Amino acid sequence: MSIGPENALNALNALNALNALNALNALGSNNALAAGGNEGPLLGEALITNRDGIVGTQIDHITPPAAGVVDSPENLPRLAKSVRAAIFQAELAPSVDLTVDTDGTLPVTTLWRRTSERDGRRRKVTYSEMVEMTAPTVEQLSTQLSLVSGYARIRPDRAAEILSQIGVPTAFFGSVNFLNAERTPHTIELLYTALTFALPVIQRTKYALAVKRPIEFSPQVQPMIPTPTHGTLPSGHATEAFLMARILWKLLIESDAPQYNDKAYWGSMLMRQAARIATNRTVAGVHFPIDSVAGATLGLTLADHVHAMCHGGGWTSATLDTPNFDPEQDFDWHQIYSAEGNAMADEAVSDRGVWLRTHHHSAPDCEGPAPALTWLWNKALDEWRDLGGGA
User: Fold this and answer.
1) For residue 168, what are the CA distances in angstroms to 162, 204, 243, 277, 280?
2) Could you tell me the pTM of the whole model?
3) Would you give the distance in Å from CA 243 to the centre of its chain?
4) Best exposed site among 186, 243, 286, 340 by fewest CB in 10 Å?
C-alpha cells in the first residue's frame, strides 16, 4: 500500500503530536524531580551502588561551606513547605492562650493575646484579653431552631455548595479574586498558615463552651451531612471563612493596586462569600445562626492578630455576650464588621442589651512582628501588586 502526500502529512502531524506528548511527559518527570525525585523502594540501594561507582579516592582538602545564616528569613525559600509551616506555627501558636470561667451561670472563654519583651535571654510576658465569649442559653438555641428548619427548605439549591465547602473553600474565594495555586502560591500558604493556627483555638473554645448541635434539639432537623462530634459554637467554618476573607482583603488593600481602591466593592464581595459559607452550614442543619455570629467575630479578630504578627501594628479585642443576642434574629455580618473601613463595629445591640463590643488597639507589639511571618506576608503581598507600574 502506497502512502500519498496527504497520508504522509497526517503521519507527520501524528508524529509531532506524539513528540509533544513525550515532551509533556518529560515535563511531568521534571516536576516529579523537583518534588523530591522517584523515591521508590530501590532508590536507597541505587544510591549506594551509585556512590561506589563514582566517589573515587578520598579528597583530603575540600573548602568548607560558609556558616549558615542564623535565625534568618533568608533560609525560608530553600525550605520545604512543610518545614516552613512548622516554623510559622512556632511563631503563631505561643501568641495566644485560652482560659475558661465556669463560676457563672454560663461558661465564658477568654482568648488572651500574649506578647513578650526580651531582657537579655529572659522574657517578660504580657497577656491582653483578645476575645471573650459567653455561651448562649438553651432557650436561645431552642428559639433559633425555627431558623434552622426554615433554611432546610433550600438544601436542594445549596447542596453542591455545602458538599464542596466541607473542606477549605479556597476555590470559592478564588472565584471572587484571582486566587490560584500557580499564580498566588504564597497567598495560599499564608491562608493555610492562618487556618492551621486558628484550628486549635476554635476546637478549644468549642470544647470549653460545650454548646449542643441542632440535631440534639429535634429529630426533625435531619442534617444533610454528618454532624461533627465537637460543639456547635463558634462555627468553625464561619471562623475560617471570615479569617480568610479579612486576610485576603488586607492583602488587596496593602497591594495599592488601583482596582482594589473601591473598598466598598471588593471587601464586601469577600465578606459576602464568607457569610454564604457560614450560612450554608445552617442550611445543612449542623449549625445555628448564632454559631456564625460567634465564628465571624472570632475569625475577624484572629485575622487582625495574624496580620499584626506578620506586619506589625494594631489588633482588635472583642467581647461577645451571646445571651444578649436576639434569638429570633438571623446572622448578619454587617452588624459585626465594615468592609469599607476594614474595622469591626464598636458595638452591636438588641432589645436584650449589648451583645458585641470591640476595641482597636493601636499599640504595637513589644518585639514587633515575627521576621519569618513578615517574609511570608510580603511574599503574598507581592502576588497582588500590579505589574508594570502603579504599585
Assistant:
1) 12, 20, 12, 10, 14
2) 0.88
3) 6
4) 340
- Average pLDDT of the chain to the nearest whole number: 90
Domain ranges within the chain, ordered by starting residue:
78-382
What architecture (CATH level 2) is domain 78-382?
A: Up-down Bundle (1.20)
pLDDT at 1: 44
**Order of strands, edge to edge, in the sheet holding 108-119?**
96-101, 108-119, 122-134, 315-321, 353-361, 347-350
pLDDT single digits (tens) 136-180: 999 999 999 999 999 999 999 999 999 999 999 999 999 999 999
When pLDDT is averaged across residues 95-124 and rounded to a whole number, the result is 90
Neighbours of 376 (CB within 10 A): 22
**Angle 185-209/81-92 helices, nearest 10 degrees?**
50
Q: What is the pLDDT of residues 61-101, one digit of tens each?
A: 889 889 999 999 999 999 999 999 999 999 999 999 999 99
